[in-house]
């Protein structure tokens, strides 16, 4: 299976010699995988120790490993990234996206992913045209490739420091949809290059067909999967079904010449927010764990290979142009983000200026940009130079922006918790620790390791801490004002409780304890309460 992931070429003839070579390749592949997994493990430990983003550590480690240390067939195959890795990453992000949060941030996401990409790529292409002197079709393609944001790099950076959940939702949503926009724009540019002409009307129609067709395809296959969930409700079968749907949706989208990325996003959202209601809590947990492992594994190999395939000589030779490329797409980002989000104030909740700074610096590039560069038409002018520039730009962006993003978040004090949250967390810490100690005391007493008098004395001391903590929590709840009620922590707590209720009700239906009709009415009420919660700031 991994061989299919990493092979750059396919064996087309079957004979004794090819079979022997195939066996040799498999042995080399196993050795290479062992090396890569060991490197990834060491990187995970070192990254945690140094408190740097995991993907940055992987890329830096890949630079140390030379291409000659691995078999020749192991590398970044653009077809594999676009047709296998990309659907997995998009689907994994989509099924974990809460539709209630997405609805509350859909306006800024739509602005950034649609006009934001168009404006940013136009400004960036203009900068490249004057600074690099490349043909306009070439700079247009490179600008589109370098305008998109790598979801994984930004989200991983956010995990090292806490950020407002609304900001994280905007970043993740923008990254999901601007990937799709970029793919559509590149198809339009490829058509212009191959045909030698351009019609604005035809371009608009092509974009509309791509988006509307991709959306309908995702809805259709997503709800088909939801219907099959009701028949299965088996963890292993459900895993196979979701893998098949994610990959099949992407392939059908390409055959129909609609946006495959949009189709996978929509299918993932439907399955994650509607399909999981049809299965048991155990099956849902298994599915989410599987997709988390799949996304983590794919990202590990991608970013490690990014560092391996980039030659240090190429990096040094293209370093000035890569810096110029970064300046160009950041200018485009600045001139699109600030004006668009200023206009957003008239349509939706304003985005704080500090958040906008994070959106600018968080414009990190990743493996998709590299795959799109490799996939450019062979006849595109200066294609080789564009690939070299993009590769070097991605590396510098991952390291430079990836390391500075957590610093900026801390500098802007975006991760500073509210006083209410700090007080509640302190009380919860006392309760959790004290109750855990009481459980351990029970075990020691039952085993005969403690006398009754000593057991009762220590148990009572912990019980006093618990009673005091519970009283303070109760006072906070009873005395809260309207402002406190709407505090982001209270909303987050309510969201968790509503989701817990949903899981318990579905489990009761599965076991035959609760009736389907009564449960559905209750679940509908819970969904309304979830959607009514304000998004966290």
Automatic annotation (TrEMBL):
Gene3D superfamilies according to UniProt: 1.20.1530.20
Localization terms from the record: Cell membrane
Keywords, sorted A to Z: Antiport, Cell membrane, Ion transport, Membrane, Sodium, Sodium transport, Transmembrane, Transmembrane helix, Transport
The Cation/H+ exchanger transmembrane domain, residue ranges: 38-411
Superkingdom field: Bacteria
Predominant localisation class: membrane
Coiled-coil annotated spans: none
Membrane topology value: Multi-pass membrane protein
Membrane-crossing residue ranges in chain numbering: 26-47, 54-74, 80-97, 109-130, 136-158, 179-198, 204-228, 235-252, 258-276, 288-310, 316-338, 358-380, 386-409
InterPro entries: Cation/H_exchanger_CPA1, Cation/H_exchanger_TM, Na+/solute_symporter_sf
Pfam family, one: Na_H_Exchanger
UniProt record similarity statement: Belongs to the monovalent cation:proton antiporter 1 (CPA1) transporter (TC 2.A.36) family.
PANTHER family: NA(+)_H(+) ANTIPORTER NHAS2, SODIUM/HYDROGEN EXCHANGER
Protein name: Sodium:proton antiporter
Species whose genome carries this gene: Cyanobacterium stanieri LEGE 03274
Phylogenetic classification of the source organism: Bacteria, Bacillati, Cyanobacteriota, Cyanophyceae, Oscillatoriophycideae
């Amino acid at each position: 299976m991994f061989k299919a992931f990493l092979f750059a070429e396919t064996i087309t003839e079957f004979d004794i010699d090819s079979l022997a070579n195939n066996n040799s390749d498999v042995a080399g592949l196993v050795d290479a995988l062992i090396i890569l997994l060991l490197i990834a493990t060491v990187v995970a430990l070192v990254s945690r120790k140094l408190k740097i983003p995991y993907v940055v550590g992987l890329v830096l480690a890949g630079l140390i490993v030379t291409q000659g240390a691995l078999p020749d067939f192991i590398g970044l195959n653009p077809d594999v990234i676009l047709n296998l890795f990309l659907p997995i990453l998009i689907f994994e992000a989509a099924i974990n996206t809460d539709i209630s949060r997405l609805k509350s941030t859909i306006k800024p996401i739509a602005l950034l992913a649609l006009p934001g990409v168009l404006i940013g790529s136009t400004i960036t292409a203009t900068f490249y045209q004057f600074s690099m002197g490349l043909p306009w079709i070439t700079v247009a393609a490179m600008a589109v490739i370098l305008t998109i944001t790598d979801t994984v790099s930004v989200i991983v950076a956010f995990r090292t420091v806490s950020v407002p959940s609304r900001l994280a939702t905007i970043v993740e949503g923008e990254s999901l949809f601007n990937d799709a926009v970029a793919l559509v724009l590149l198809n339009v540019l490829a058509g212009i290059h191959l045909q030698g002409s351009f019609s604005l009307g035809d371009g608009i129609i092509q974009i509309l067909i791509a988006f509307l067709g991709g959306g309908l395809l995702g809805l259709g296959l997503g709800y088909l999967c939801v219907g099959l969930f009701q028949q299965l409700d088996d963890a292993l079968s459900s895993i196979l079904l979701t893998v098949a749907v994610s990959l099949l949706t992407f392939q059908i989208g390409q055959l129909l010449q609609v946006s495959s990325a949009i189709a996978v996003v929509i299918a993932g959202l439907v399955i994650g927010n509607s399909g999981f209601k049809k299965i048991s809590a155990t099956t849902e947990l298994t599915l989410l764990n599987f997709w988390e492992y799949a996304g983590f594994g794919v990202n590990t190999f991608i970013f490690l290979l990014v560092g391996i395939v980039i030659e240090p000589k190429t990096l040094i030779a293209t370093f000035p142009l890569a810096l110029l490329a970064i300046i160009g797409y950041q200018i485009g980002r600045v001139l699109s983000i600030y004006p668009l989000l200023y206009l957003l104030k008239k349509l939706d909740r304003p985005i704080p200026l500090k958040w906008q700074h994070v959106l600018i610096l968080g414009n990190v590039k990743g493996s998709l940009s590299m795959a799109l560069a490799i996939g450019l038409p062979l006849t595109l002018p200066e294609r080789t130079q564009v690939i070299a520039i993009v590769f070097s730009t991605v590396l510098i962006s991952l390291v430079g922006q990836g390391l500075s993003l957590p610093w900026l978040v801390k500098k802007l004090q975006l991760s500073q918790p509210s006083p209410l949250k700090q007080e509640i967390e302190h009380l919860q810490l006392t309760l959790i620790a004290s109750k855990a100690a009481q459980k351990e005391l029970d075990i020691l007493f039952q085993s005969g390791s403690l006398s009754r008098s000593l057991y009762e004395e220590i148990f009572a001391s912990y019980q006093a801490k618990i009673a005091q903590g519970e009283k303070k929590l109760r006072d906070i709840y009873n005395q809260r004002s309207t402002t406190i009620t709407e505090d982001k922590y209270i909303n987050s707590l309510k969201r968790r409780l509503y989701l817990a209720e949903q899981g318990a009700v579905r489990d009761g239906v599965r076991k035959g304890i609760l009736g389907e009709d009564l449960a559905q009415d209750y679940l509908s009420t819970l969904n309304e309460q979830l959607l009514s919660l304000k998004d966290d700031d």
